[in-house]
Amino acid sequence: MATYLEFIQQNEERDGVRFSWNVWPSSRLEATRMVVPLACLFTPLKERPDLPPVQYEPVLCSRPTCKAVLNPLCQVDYRAKLWACNFCFQRNQFPPAYGGISEVNQPAELMPQFSTIEYMIQRGAQSPLIFLYVVDTCLEEDDLQALKESLQMSLSLLPPDALVGLITFGRMVQVHELSCEGISKSYVFRGTKDLTAKQIQDMLGLTKPAMPMQQARPAQPQEHPFVSSRFLQPVHKIDMNLTDLLGELQRDPWPVTQGKRPLRSTGVALSIAVGLLEGTFPNTGARIMLFTGGPPTQGPGMVVGDELKIPIRSWHDIEKDNARFMKKATKHYEMLANRTAANGHCIDIYACALDQTGLLEMKCCANLTGGYMVMGDSFNTSLFKQTFQRIFTKDFNGDFRMAFGATLDVKTSRELKIAGAIGPCVSLNVKGPCVSENELGVGGTSQWKICGLDLTSTLGIYFEVVNQHNAPIPQGGRGAIQFVTHYQHSSTQRRIRVTTIARNWADAQTQLRHIEAAFDQEAAAVLMARLGVFRAESEEGPDVLRWLDRQLIRLCQKFGQYNKEDPASFRLSDSFSLYPQFMFHLRRSPFLQVFNNSPDESSYYRHHFARQDLTQSLIMIQPILYSYSFHGPPEPVLLDSSSILADKILLMDTFFQIVIYLGETIAQWRKAGYQDMPEYENFKHLLQAPLDDAQEILQARFPMPRYINTEHGGSQARFLLSKVNPSQTHNNLYAWGQC
Amino acid sequence: MNVNQSIPPVPPFGQPQPVYPGYHQSSYSGQSGSTAPAIPYGAYNGPVPGYQQTPPQGISRAPPSSGAPPASTAQAACGQVAYGQFGQGDVQNGPSSAVQMQRLPGSQPFGSTLAPVGSQPAVLQPYGPPPTSAQVTAQLAGMQISSAVAPAPPSSGLGYGPPTSLASASGSFPNSGLYGSYPQGQASPVSQAQGHPGIQTPQRSAPSQASSFTPPVSGGPRLPSMTGPLLPGQGFGGPSVSQPNHVSSPPPQALPPGTQMTGPLGPPPPMHSLQQPGYQPQQNGSFGSARGPQPNYGSPYPAAPTFGSQPGPPQPLPPKRLDPDAIPSPIQVIEDDRNNRGTEPFVTGVRGQVPPLVTTNFLVKDQGNASPRYIRCTSYNIPCTSDMAKQAQVPLAAVIKPLATLPPDEASPYVVDHGESGPLRCNRCKAYMCPFMQFIEGGRRFQCCFCSCINDVPPQYFQHLDHTGKRVDAYDRPELSLGSYEFLATVDYCKNNKFPSPPAFIFMIDVSYNAIRTGLVRLLCEELKSLLDFLPRECGAEESAIRVGFVTYNKVLHFYNVKSSLAQPQMMVVSDVADMFVPLLDGFLVNVNESRAVITSLLDQIPEMFADTRETETVFVPVIQAGMEALKAAECAGKLFLFHTSLPIAEAPGKLKNRDDRKLINTDKEKTLFQPQTGAYQTLAKECVAQGCCIDLFLFPNQYVDVATLSVVPQLTGGSVYKYACFQVENDQERFLSDLRRDVQKVVGFDAVMRVRTSTGIRAVDFFGAFYMSNTTDVELAGLDGDKTVTVEFKHDDRLNEESGALLQCALLYTSCAGQRRLRIHNLALNCCTQLADLYRNCETDTLINYMAKFAYRGVLNSPVKAVRDTLITQCAQILACYRKNCASPSSAGQLILPECMKLLPVYLNCVLKSDVLQPGAEVTTDDRAYVRQLVTSMDVAETNVFFYPRLLPLTKSPIESTTEPTAVRASEERLSNGDIYLLENGLNLFLWVGASVQQGVVQSLFSVSSFSQITSGLSVLPVLDNPLSKKVRGLIDSLRAQRSRYMKLIVVKQEDKLEMLFKHFLVEDKSLSGGASYVDFLCHMHKEIRQLLS
């Protein structure tokens, strides 16, 4: 543990946790003065190939309000077979199975290297994964064809016992029955009518069997699977059927007259999908995958009317309060999202269209349930196809890299309270002694539900130090936080992952240096950014920027060293040096700037920002720029216009875009065809190098970034130019360039 | 003498007709005059009775022989003869008299009281049937007469009194009146006279009967002489006397009548003879004569009052009862009309002609008026003023069947295409060009015959006039020379100003547990596979333009995509029944040939798919809504075929509850049983009509399904309802499939609007039938087929003009099954009269009954059934009383005098009153009543005729070789002989009644079992055996079925078997178990009512 940097990195790798402060100020007052709140980025399912799950259940603290899990930080009395909870100090008896416990015979959860440990629970019926496709049929022919192929392909990627269902929609919504032979059967719903879950279930015949069926066939223990099987079937059984069905899927047959948008009942389709799962498989892992090629144009959740002459709302309209349908639609989708979350299901949105598709209104469906949001131009692009395929990639165990229906339970030692979380989660509204009254993000609870998460899903969790200034913590005291994540693994097992961490307290007055050195500016930047974005969702853009600025100023005030009236004297220590730069780019980022972005795009960017881990988040805030030249290996360069040089190739990664930019000279060379001449093979290699690197990034990232290959003067060079710090412009190019 | 002879022909009633031909108008006038004469009656009464009888008797009978049987034949013969002779009023009369004779027989019974006659009566009865034609009146008259004759007896036979009245009815007396002395005699004679003439052709003329009475007048002269004799005759053994008369001329023919007459009639015959001479007599004669009895009648009658409710009281009389044979017999009237008017084509050129009866086969030649197959009126002579109309109380109504199917030898209406300008119409009243329009100013203008507006003739339509003021091209243009024709409609006549697309048929099949269990679904699907090849098409078209769609349903609806490009049909379930919509556009309605493979596959799979269903609940309104929405989406009109099994109790709009409550019967709340439970059905129907969506409903209930509510939509959209209670494939398959085939194949017009225009002075004020009206003039029909009729009632607006008559124009705008928009026009000119007698002479009782039944059946929706019955009786009494008062010659109040044309009114009316709707028996369900009520609403005259008075055909009476349909017998148990087999049909039911002592050979050859006891009761199919009898009977059954619009399921009933109760229900002349009066009793009651009105 040589430096804090290493410490931080090690912690991240082991526990998936990055704190803004790694030494905690010991009183509320001081903590407040630190400007950046005590918070962490927590990746619940941080991939740990070296961490095999243990096959038993965790031992819990017996105090009903605590129920913390036995962990390496607990004090254990081996002789008395007792352990003391490090959160509530309750003394607990070990369960009988732990009878043989001793200093040399410790269970895994007591070993320090198992600060993160995963338990596998054998109890309870295992229910298969469920994938419910909700497919828009108001697509262009080739788009629909491409989508159908992607869906058919996906069938082969699903585990054979996974249940699949199909709902298609256009003017009407059709729920396809998958079990029948011969005639293909579907239940049709009007696209304009909002139905309650009860109505939907009645209409699908899901509630009917309750009475007569039971009497008719008393020996039918598995009522549920039987009932729902009409719509949700194991892949292996209806593979062919469904493939045919998808193959026969036609574009919505209702005529669309000139000057109209097709009538698209997305709102009702989603509502039915939610209702269907709600009635049949509550609290089991399920993905509702919505594929839509345009905005909802009718029924509840409509975003725009079907008149083409009235364009879909823009930021401008929203500011002018001109977006007629927005509030109602948002309400509809929020209601759906909350219901879905309550059932432990998640909703993915795959929206591919050139115009907006209503992501702004629908975003909560993905945001609150941990679903994915993918935005593309067409289903017939590799961007969509590969992104979609990537959802079904598997880990080294052959399991999907996704998990379902998780609840995250956070426990803190008594000096801390939980202020809130920001991420793809909803509050479970569990009040407790460790819940703060001040909310940051989604607060007022110590538990959140994350219906869908993958290995990189990351939550920002914010704390509040409540220890009073006049009640100092003894030297060497440590604060502890425990994250208990219950989830359904993609192999359908229930698992519990427990991460317990502890950090030292320090008195900010006497040990400010300590605290300063333990500042994690990257984590802090991301955590502050999440707060900013969270605010931006509900507040006016300029207010958020002002708030961010003020925070930055205050931080610099607190930790910077300067002489009054002398800007040149300003210094920040290493651990803070990059922070202002992050803030600078954050202010320019699409997360906070809506200019030049549609409301849908903003929603899309913010969605991803709120769930990616620290590294990806940082890339989003401040894109990475690599420079390739004959002078040596590629090197990262400043995201600044001064980095754009004629004899360099630049590779920029903004997370959402990968841009390869050939400098002026390089572009000329390429045009002249040097790369094809054997004597200039090195040039060929130079040209190839960024391509290879880009490919590597593309392979790993979800969702697939937009890939742009351009050169000096190319129209698409704008993607690069818009990102770099404009230190050189046509106004100052020469002045600065010379010096 | 001749007259007498004619009398024998029993058809007596019909008789008058023959006369008519010859006489027609002139005779009438005469008659009217004659009425006055009635006076004589008083005396006559006595004679009359005898009289009536006499005629028949007179003829052959008078003598004991009374070979009734011969009568029939004889009559026929006579009738014909008469005809031929025409010129010879006498001769004709003769036949007519014969008719009377028959009645007389009827009267005889009464007469019988007289004693001497007694013996004869028996004979008469047998006769009865034939004589029936003789109008009741006649018989009654006879009755009275008899009473009169033998005052004592009558009194004793209080009950009988009534009969007497009948006699009086014979109104014919009035004629006799002329005779003064005659009175009675006349009556009888008259009746006879009528009978004679009427017999066949005469019958028709009978209508004129009213006038017929007058005839008596003419007859009067003779009568007197006759009377004299008659009276004596009566007085004596009336019989003998009468006979003599009859004998004189008709004797041989008369025989039959004679038989009847024998007893009492005796005297009457003479009358006849008298009348006959008068010729008019026929009319009068027929009835009048009979009247004699009235006197007696009257007295006995008193008891009658109770009658209405129950014949009971009168019963005491029984001993002396009216002889059923003496009262007017429907069979006789029908037979006479057949014989007299079935041979020559009915040419429509003359205004105000009364067409032959609906039971007669005749050919129609359109010469400017619509065929009676399209329009029949209650009267072809309309009173000029509303006062007259009010006085007569005869409803003025037309029964219109705009798309009636014509026999193959009559041409269907020509289609006229006037190009883009469309049909030529009057600018003011919008009437269409028709033969009655008057061209003036050299053909440059025309005057509208309806509103008198003068219109310019468009240049392209201009044509010169000939010297008579007729366009020279009149005969080249159907609209100027025919009564019925069609115009091609222009786009202005189309919805949304767009030519319609071809209509569609949607089959909507209940697949709930009940439907599956009974095998209905499988049967239906199997049948549809072949049936779809026979969708109606425009004549000449290679394939039908109609598209088809399929829906199945229980609690939810399943739509099927059967697009030709699909390998398999696709099912789409819509469970949102509260807010129905159509889930697919493309592929729901398809061309049968293009999608045959998919459709076949679908029909194969439907029964399989639902084979295990446990769903018992069904919906109804959403199903229709769905069909309608589908048509709306496809922008076409069409028809839904709904196959439904149970009360729709599933949670959905139009949900019904079981509200069947027999306790409501005979209470003020009974009407609720006929009203729909909720308004949802009417609302829906309205929407359907707007879309041109017609619904045909096939019901297969196991229990109460609330037909009253379910049938609302079919009813208002011009559809049909079929009901197969307790459907079982084995038993009902043939019936259902046959109905279905016919229903699917029949030609239909869609999205129709019908409007009836009339010349100034009268106006269509009320409409009955299966349709919807959103205003007071336009009858809107989502669909209209060749079986549906609309009955229209007219009222006076103003004074009519005798010269110009009254015109009706019925215009029907509809979409043909190929999607062509057309206008069908029917025109009919009627006469107008200032004399009530003319009205009564030109009435059509069958049509009248059709109207009254529909009126009553609608009445039960709003009034207690009892009130409705009373209204009918009152109206009928008023009609007859008015006649008696204004047209019949004065006679004793005790006489029942019926106009010739209406002599069947009482018997038919009684049938209506006893029908299930108005007087339900214990075994009749609420659904049955609602079903029948609904059926009758759109029945045409022929259907109501046989429905209310079933045909009872003896099968073993005529030689096996004879190929003609056997002559029916009256619907009374007395007419059944236990050694015979009978067929009974009423258009809905078909019974084969087997007498207990039928010959074994017959049993063997029909049923293939050796004895009566081995015949399975309730059998519904006769074994196919290769012997003449079996072939003949089965052939007959087939031909009966072919005549009816619905397949009649056969039920074999054995005498003395419990099923016989069911059968007896249809013997409408008898007292019914549910309290319906017997014919005789009712007649008595009627007479009493009339007398009350007159006093």
Task: Tell me what the structure shows.
The complex is a heterodimer of chains A (739) and B (1095). Chain A is of the alpha+beta class and 739 residues long. Chain A folds into 4 domains: 4-55 and 111-122 and 399-511, beta-sandwich domain of Sec23/24 (Immunoglobulin-like, Sandwich); 130-205 and 228-391, von Willebrand factor, type A domain (Rossmann fold); 535-611, Sec23/Sec24 helical domain (Four Helix Bundle (Hemerythrin (Met), subunit A)), CATH 1.20.120.730; 623-723, Severin (3-Layer(aba) Sandwich). Chain A has 22 helices and 29 strands. In chain A, the strands form 6 sheets. In chain A, strands 8, 9, 10, 11, 12, 13, 14 and 15 form an 8-stranded mixed sheet that branches. In chain A, strands 2, 7, 16, 18, 19, 21 and 22 form a 7-stranded mixed sheet that branches. Chain A starts with a helix and ends with a helix. Chain B has 1095 residues and is α/β, with parallel strands linked by helices. Among the domains of chain B are: 500-746, von Willebrand factor, type A domain (Rossmann fold); 844-948, Four Helix Bundle (Hemerythrin (Met), subunit A) (Up-down Bundle), CATH 1.20.120; 950-1067, Severin, CATH 3.40.20. Chain B contains 40 helices and 28 strands. In chain B, the strands form 6 sheets. In chain B, strands 11, 12, 13, 14, 15, 16, 17 and 18 form an 8-stranded mixed sheet that branches. Chain B starts with a helix and ends with a helix. Chain A binds chain B through residues 172, 174, 177, 180, 182-190, 193, 195, 199, 202-205, 212, 216, 248, 253-255, and chain B through 556, 558-560, 566, 568-576, 579, 581, 583-587, 602, 605, 608-609, 614. β11 (184-190) of chain A pairs parallel with β14 (570-574) of chain B.
